[in-house]
Amino acid sequence: MLETIERFSHYLMKNNPLLSIIIVNYNTKDLLQQCLNSLFKAVTDRSPASAPPTQRRSGSDAWLPSPRLVNMEIIIIDNNSHDGSREFLKELNSKSQTPNSKPQFLPRHAKVSLRHPALSQERVGSSGGGKLTTMVAHPAEDAEPPPTDVGGNQHDVLFRHPEFTRPAPEGAKGPGVSGSSGGGAPRMIIRRTPEMLKKFQHDDESRNNQHNDIFSIPQGITIKTIFNKTNLGFAKAVNQGAEAARGDYLLVLNDDVLLADNWLANLGPVLLEYRKQRIAAFGGVVLDRTGRRVESLGLRYFLGGRAENIANGLKWPETWQKFRAWLEKPHPVDGLNGAAVVYRRDAFLAVGGFDERFFAYLEDVDLALRLREKGWKMSFVPQLVAYHQGGATSQKMGNLRQRMTVRNWWWLIIKNYPGQVWRRCWWPILLERGRNFSYLLRTTPLKLWPATFWWLVKNLLELPTIWRTRKPLSWLAKK
After folding, report:
1. Domain boundaries, the chain
2. pLDDT by residue (tens digit) across 343-392?
3. How far is the C-alpha of 404 from the C-alpha of 422, rounded, in Å?
4. CATH class of the domain at 2-104+207-395
């Protein structure tokens, strides 16, 4: 749909960039550099969005890049780092280029159907055949030929592996074989073998190691920096970035995250498709830094005061076999892993953003509960894959994570839970809070206990203030 691309182009050519990327940094210079490198690489990556199979009208294969969103801004908030991060950010800010007035897109002669692979499936083959998610492009006759390194193979949407489909043997028919109305050779969907999955995993591991040197800042990217005089915490720093942002969407990105090369390419069609729906946040697959384990496929919330990362700890990419239906298309979820989440800016600001009293941890869960109270939804999009180290900042701050978990769960429950939920779930609530406190006891070194004790006393005295400012959420009583 050329008209769709043109509408998207006019939309992006407003003074406000479409996407504002917010990154909070505190003494993690090296990880911040790697995060920015992966981000710049995702901007300049020329592989098709979601690596979809594309077909010419004549039936032969062709590859055509998806609309490339380059008109965006990056806002980095530094919480008084002393590891050289501030000097690095000042140098980076000086290199930031002014944004283009006109974003880069597909050549005008290309006619493209923007049917996002996460939103539309086509059944390939006769009865009994498998499913293949597609986004079909129909270039004009004078379109550029496909890259020579593609090898004519179609790619699997989720895993981007060229061996998932191959040309069918001559005369092949039956399930799993797709014909071509334009006279091209039929395609055959082959099974995803363990060897292929291992090859895919090796490719991802190789990509994980490609972020050591700073890339040049892509054209059209502006970088803003905010330097705080003290460590104000993650929640307040993100709110600072949201206030300074000009985009309609906010990508809140942890500084220890690497984005998959096609992350931004996959995001654009999703935002376009859902822009008129009341979806406040989008998130995707979060793997550990090695790509071998799943960290999250979205959050599942329990009234006892527990937010569970779906599929946490399972092996990847074998996980797709167990969660295949879950990974085929977007799903509504209770919440999203905070490592890489895209929020609608108007929804984020309308509910007050993150609760700055939380400082760090569970502020994203609290926000998800408050967004749902206002009728907003959150969507898990499997095509958005990110790699997260986890705990990069808190590991340098003693038992910060354990202390924040104990305190913030109590604050979240007190400020959001109506009375009937307390009466119905008091025992699970106490049990979960006991587990949090037990974890704090087991993991805190003896030398930190005096400071931890007085910190707990100080925050215990703040509970009456939290109670007076509570705003119970009515939807929780119906859960």
Report:
1. 2-104+207-395, 398-478
2. 999 999 999 999 999 999 999 999 999 999 999 999 999 999 999 988 76
3. 22
4. alpha beta
